Amino acid sequence: MVASVTDTSFLTTDQYADQQLAALSGEDELGRDAFLTLLTTQLTNQNPLDPMDNEAFVAQLAQFSSVEGIKGMQGSLESMVTGMRQDQMLTGANLVGKKVAVEGGFFEGGNGAQSQGSIDLPNGAESVILSVYDPSSGELVFRETQGAQLPGRLNLNWNGYNREGDLAANGNYVMSASVVRNGKLETAPVTTMAEVKSVSWDPESQELSLEVGDGDFVTLAQVERIGI
Questions:
Q1: Are residues 119 and 214 in the same domain?
Q2: CA trace torsion 97, 102, 103, 109 (10° rounding)
Q3: Distance (Å, rounded) from C-alpha 210 to C-alpha 192?
Q4: Which parts of the chain are beta strand (E)?
């Protein structure tokens, strides 16, 4: 009698666990319908000599409920991330053509136009050296040395002329600054108002990038202020 029962297609609890594990490790995910079909088949064909206990039944239902909840939460997070990306792209599109204050010293100037940058001097400086470069060639276009400065923000101005006193060509430039403190020369980050030429999405950093120079990009988080 025992042999006739155990030789049938009834599943023991251990056999069902192995079957469920094999199904989960396959290429297709176990969805709600497949899980309910599998569970119903198990209950219908369980071995009378080794029936499924209540604890195992409840544990399987709880596990399935947790998986469903996690999948639902994942879908909601993906939708939220997509919405945030769209909002950032819309914000970036509205910045094209406007000027933003960013570190790096990029700006468009020359031809006698006044261009301005700024540096922070929390401890003041014995002297400040302003330099303007052509970013495409690396050529030094202008240089000026200023005297001692008090602590605070210092504005740096370039009149659009080169070192020979001639008009510099209109184009993209980079402004840099060096300060002397305690007899030592240090580099100070320069903030300039640069025009936003384009925006793009960086899939690696998941951030919006703004083109503010000739192929130079900054993140939206690096923008200190927005101008007209």
A1: yes
A2: 40
A3: 14
A4: 99-103, 106-109, 115-121, 127-133, 140-146, 152-158, 171-181, 184-188, 191-195, 198-202, 207-211, 217-219, 225-226
Same domain for 64 and 145, yes or no, is: no
The domain in which residue 152 lies consists of 99-226
What lies within 8 Å, CB to CB, of 207 at 6+ separation is: 88, 201, 219, 220, 221
Global model pTM greater than 0.90: no
Report the pLDDT value the prediction gives residue 224, as an integer from 0 to 100.
83
37 and 82 assigned to the same domain: yes
Quickly tell me which residue has 């094209």 as its tokens: 96
Q: Are residues 45 and 25 in the same domain?
A: yes
Q: What pLDDT is recorded for position 20?
A: 56
Indicate whether 122 and 203 sit together in one domain: yes
